[in-house]
Write a structure and sequence with these properties.
The protein is of the alpha+beta class. The protein is built from seven helices and 15 strands. The strands form four sheets. The chain has an eight-stranded antiparallel β-sheet with strand order 4-5-7-9-8-11-12-10. It has a three-stranded mixed β-sheet with strand order 2-3-15. Helix 2 crosses helix 5 and helix 6 crosses helix 7. The radius of gyration is 19 Å and the shape is globular. GO terms for molecular function: ATP binding; ATP:ADP adenylyltransferase activity. InterPro entries: Ap4A_phos1/2, Ap4A_phos1/2-like, Ap4A_phos1/2_N, ATP_adenylylTrfase_C, HIT-like_sf.
């Protein structure tokens, strides 16, 4: 079946120039980070530390209904012109993330309000694939796309949106010495073998360039079904499931979530903070907000493995 939606052919350069202009104009905030790579069950995990992130405004909890006059405004209802990138089909548009940890971090959002907790539709995935393939044609790597759904997923906004990170920019700050002789970092969701070694259970299927939206949506439905059955009675209410989804140029991954994060322990076993994780965990990345958390995890990568083991189902199921 032919692809119904397409992204602008110059999307990578369009994102780059829009980001540079918005940054210079003060229309977005970019938080530079320290970065290192830690081994977790033989999987190289990228750890980033952004001191400025601690002062980022905390979004409201994910809501179950569209915003009302008594609820915070919807940031995707009327995107700032300086952050707007382009439309993708009749029902989606692209906008820069106003609070960027990775340069050129952007978002695919629905034009009309749709629930972040509802199942994704074929058009959501088709638009995501169109963006991934536009980047892959330009640099061979493409994008890491992720979706957070449910109270334990790291989701923050009720308006449906999928986040997109240029993989080339996710490598910013990494140098050859960062991995200390361990396997070099790469996007976890690319590699089915490494996914099997992760401390949390995932369900994945390979995808390929040119697949129809219907075929990829079918994979999404199958994987969500498998994840729901695995979660079973651990879900807070029947039929509900918190999860992260990741899409790359070659794989679709679903990770059921039972917790947003867990405590980080210092050298003496005391709690020094709490690590909260969203869908970037499926890239093999984690972000900390304090120096104590950064130092504790670098000194004891096993603590990171422990936190990761608590966010979902253990290992492969």
């Amino acid at each position: 079946m032919a692809r119904a939606l397409s992204a602008p052919s110059n999307l990578p350069s369009l994102v780059k120039t829009t980001f540079a202009k918005a940054l210079s104009g003060g229309d977005l905030h970019y938080f530079p980070t320290k970065v290192t790579v830690l081994p977790v069950n033989s999987v190289p995990f990228q750890l980033r530390f952004s001191p400025a992130l601690a002062s980022k405004p905390k979004p409201p909890p994910q809501q179950d209904a569209s915003p009302s006059p008594n609820q915070p405004s919807d940031p995707f209802a009327n995107p700032p012109p300086a952050l707007y990138i382009a439309d993708v089909g009749p029902s989606h548009y692209l906008v820069l993330n106003k609070f960027a940890i990775v340069p050129e971090h952007f978002i695919l959002a629905t034009k009309e309000f749709k629930q972040q907790t509802d199942a994704l539709e074929e058009a959501d995935l088709e638009a995501t694939l169109a963006c991934i393939e536009a980047f892959a044609r330009a640099d061979g790597e493409g994008l890491f796309a992720f979706f957070n759904s449910g109270e334990h997923s790291g989701a923050s906004q009720p308006h449906r949106h999928i986040q997109l990170l240029p993989i080339a920019r996710m490598r910013d700050g990494l140098v050859s010495g960062d991995d200390d002789g361990h396997a070099p970092w790469d996007v976890l969701a690319h590699d089915g073998g490494r996914l099997e070694q992760a401390p949390f259970a995932v369900f994945s299927e390979p995808i390929a360039p040119g697949m129809s939206g219907a075929d990829v949506h079918g994979a999404y439905v199958r994987l969500c079904g498998r994840a729901r059955r695995a979660v079973g009675e651990r879900a807070p209410r029947e039929g509900e499931m918190s999860y992260n989804m990741a899409v790359t140029r070659n794989r679709l991954v679903i990770c059921p979530r039972l917790a947003e994060g867990a405590a980080v322990c210092g050298r003496g076993g005391q709690d020094v903070g709490r690590l909260a994780l969203n869908g970037t965990v499926l890239a093999g990345t984690a972000l900390v907000r304090s120096e104590d958390e950064w130092e504790a995890l670098r000194a004891n990568p096993g603590c990171l493995a422990d936190v990761l083991g608590k966010i979902g189902l253990p290992g492969q199921v």
